[in-house]
Amino acid sequence: MTASPYGQAGGAQPPVCPRHPDRVSYVRCQRCDRPVCPECQRPAAVGVQCVDCVARAQAAMPARRTVFGAKVHSGRPVVTMTFVALCVLAYAAQRVFPGLSTPAYFMPALGELEPHRFLTAAFLHGGFLHLAVNMYALWIVGSVLEPALGRWRFAALFLVSALGGSVGVLLFASPFEHDWVTPVVGASGAVFGLFGAIGLALRRLGRDTTQIVVLIAINAVLGFVIPNVAWQAHVGGLLTGLLLSAAYVYAPRDRRTAVSVVATVGVTVLLVVLAAAKYAIS
Hints:
- This protein is mainly α.
- The protein folds into two domains: 61 residues, no CATH class; 204 residues, Rhomboid-like (Rhomboid-like fold, Up-down Bundle), CATH 1.20.1540.10.
- It has ten helices and two strands; from the N terminus they run E-E-H-H-H-H-H-H-H-H-H-H.
- Helix 2 runs antiparallel to helix 5 and helix 5 packs parallel to helix 7.
- The longest helix is centred in the C-terminal third of the chain and has 26 residues.
- Pfam families: Rhomboid.
- One of its GO terms (biological process) is proteolysis.
């Protein structure tokens, strides 16, 4: 028989905390019965537990999830904040280096040879008001959608909707018209995709969607009324967001991840095929 290295209650050696062997402790963990010093004690329903037992218990607990299957995260919507920060930094760079946006804006005439423009254009903006309106909408909607869908699905929704916005511009453009060589910038396509997604999520939850439908309608009308607004990007982003978010919010509970991955890849491939077909017949 060997003696416990932590000492025994009533034994010759005083019990010591296993995490801090230099500290004598006569208080024991209710789970493992090991001595636990004040620094390692965690309050329990009866007595105290050591930090190791608490950590094991938390690891064994199932992760809390939202109604759409996303893991519940505490804190701020980091993906939304990242997209906002990227757009603000890009705008600042545009002001300091005016020619910096030239390789990044979208133009149907250049998209086939430089496909990165389909996405990079979403992070550029034509003026401060353009930036402010889009970032406000992104922050308001993203603060709700990101926690509900989860970080990776929200990021995918934003990026694929941005791609859909550029594809919308391409599909409505004619190689024989001026719009084929007109630069397009802005996160509006992505934001409209988020509008569609939050409307669909509210409908899935049985909530009133009147406000979001009115918001989409007002912004859609403004796209036709205000000059130099690419309404084509709004339409493309909205339809893409509706299509992708439908898979996210209506996926069966036991196959959410698989359905979400397949839908993300599938919608992206569909947009690429539509763009390729447009260039093939132009």
